[in-house]
Amino acid sequence: MKKTAYIWLLLISFAFVACGGGGVKGKLVGSWEAESIDGKTPKQKSTMEFRKDGSFVQSAGSTSRGGKWEVSKDDKSVTIIPEKDKTETLVIVRLEGSEFVAKDGERPGEIKFRKR
Fold it and tell me: Which domains does the chain have, with CATH numbers?
């Protein structure tokens, strides 16, 4: 009986991980809209879409860019690797439900995103 319970627990765990589970990467996948940058409302609509395959699309107004993204091993930051620009690292301040707050090493404040 115990062996069957362990097998079910193992199968459920594999299914949870395969679906993106509760890890940081699984929580980030989706489309996010910037609500505030350095405490101010953005002048133009700014979005970031993290795709399950590790690619991203970022847009601000009429401009956009794409590339790859990855979560650090300690789940504390996200590295954005654009196709043409320099690599950026966003330190995760908070990632709960539909709210993602990050600190960009090149900015004094934070960027607050809301899941769309």
Answer: 23-115 (2.40.128.280)
